Amino acid sequence: MKIFVGNVDGADTTPEELAALFAPYGTVMSCAVMKQFAFVHMRENAGALRAIEALHGHELRPGRALVVEMSRPRPLNTWKIFVGNVSAACTSQELRSLFERRGRVIECDVVKGNWRW
In sequence order, which residues have a C-beta less than 8 Å from that of residue 25 and are 6 or more positions away? Predict the structure, then answer.
């Protein structure tokens, strides 16, 4: 089961640290940490549900309560597009405005700095 973990400090949180946090609830298959969120894949649904219940609101860092919930799939008929070589000064709203000239934008994230999958 794929779990969404929000309010993560991607610059200060490692996949190994998240795996250790989720491991008491079941087998962790993989973890991917982005800028402010992460995905944790767990083998067993029951363990994943226990982890969601136990870790939602947990403070991994002081003052940063995690948002832990089942990952939801993208809406039908949507596509995820990677745009590289974006200026460090570009905001997600600027990028969204550029793409909204061509159609509806469901989600727009600008990942800056060092990120890891």
Answer: 42, 47, 48, 50, 51, 54, 55
Tell me the β-bridge partners of 6. Answer: 37, 67
| Distance from C-alpha of 14 to C-alpha of 16, rounded to nearest angstrom | 5
SS3 assignment, position 75: coil
By C-alpha distance, which of 17, 47, 23 is closest to 116? 17
Our measurement of the distance from residue 117's CA atom to the centroid of its chain's CA atoms, rounded to an integer in Å, reads 10
Output the six-digit token pair for 24. 């008491």
> What is the tens place of the pLDDT at every residue in 39-81?
999 999 999 999 999 999 999 989 889 999 999 887 777 788 8
Q: Where are the domains of the chain?
A: 1-68, 73-116
Fold of 1-68: Alpha-Beta Plaits (3.30.70)
Read off the pTM: 0.66
